[in-house]
Amino acid sequence: METNRHRLVSQILAAQVAPPLVMTNLYEVGADGTPRILPSVGGITLSVRVGDSCFGHEGDHVEPAVSARHSDDKLNAALNVFACIGNVATVTSGEAKGARGTVTGKHGGVEHVIVDFAADTMAQMQIGDTLSIRAVGVGLAIVDAGDVRVFNCDPDLLERIGIERDGARFRVPVARIVPARVMGSGLGRSTVVRGDYDIQCFDEPTVREFGLDRLRLGDLVAIVDADNTFGRIYRGGAVTIAGVSHGRSFLAGHGPGVTTLLTSASGAIEPVVDERANLATLLDLR
Fold first, then answer.
1. 81, 83, 146, 235: which sits with the fewest CB atoms below 10 Å from its CB?
2. DSSP assignment of 250-286, as one string?
3. pTM for the full model?
4. Is the pLDDT of residue 208 over 80?
């Protein structure tokens, strides 16, 4: 599968390890009417990494491993646009200086870039440690791919996914199929080069039908009838491939978040279910 990777711009981005955050009023009232106080976004999350269940921890919107952002909002916007899943991150300060990790997702609203590090590395890290991310992937395209577009994807990751091309169609391994009718927070954004949108898991028949309760952080999923070419919209027949970036939520309209990797408005992408289609396996992270 030929791409334009030789033309891509590679840059170094700066970030810091972001602290954990809580809502101002502490309690968040879930879709079931229950108020909860739970760990949420940000921080160095020692007990949660890609490959783990989206529902296996007592948290809400938990980001696996390390959450990163830049203290300057303008520079943080660039970090969130130019960092791509699969990019290499290096710790540049503190006791873990020199250790390497991998970008595994983005989270809109809080505007975090999520980076996986080995457990022993995270044990040495502190809030505020600086990171350097080798950003490459923005502008990545498959040659003569019709309306299939690539977003937020390091070129090495694109090659590792195992896409099979058959003329104008592209077979892509995914761990789960997700119907567009359950997509929530993040819909309507005019671009998918930053942030994510959420899989609502409140309708039990749909959860059972599609096995959504078995979603794992880092899973590649196919969202059917979803077009992400110029933003996140419902379009019959379209297919979008995304990576699960953060964990479950009890809040209405929210759930495991996904960051877009591929999309086709015409449905030229054919998802092939393969339980191994997870970033932990594809990028040798666990």
1. 146
2. -STT--SEEEEEEEETT--EEEEE-TT-BHHHHTT--
3. 0.97
4. yes
CA distances from residue 149 to 3, 42, 126, 143 in whole angstroms, order as listed: 11, 30, 37, 10
Q: Name 219's Cβ contacts closer than 8 Å, sequence gap at least 6.
A: 174, 175, 176, 243, 244, 277, 278, 279
Closest to 261 measured CA to CA, from 85, 77, 32: 85
Burial class (CB in 10 A: 0-12, 13-18, 19+), 89: buried
Cα–Cα nearest to 183, from 120, 128, 260: 260
Is the CB of residue 232 less than 8 Å from the CB of residue 226? yes
Tokens of 133: 């991310």
H-run or E-run covering 157: helix 155-160
Query: Tokens at residue 254, please?
Result: 């929210």
Architecture per CATH, domain 5-135, reads as Beta Barrel (2.40)
Give the C-alpha separation, 195 to 260, whole Å: 9
Quick: pLDDT tens for 238-278.
Answer: 999 999 999 999 999 999 999 999 999 999 999 999 999 99
Amino acid at site 123:
A
Burial of 47 (0-12, 13-18, 19+ CB in 10 A): middle
Enumerate helices (H) and strands (E) in the chain, giving the number of each: 5, 18
| Rg value, the chain, Cα | 18
Residues present in the chain in total: 286
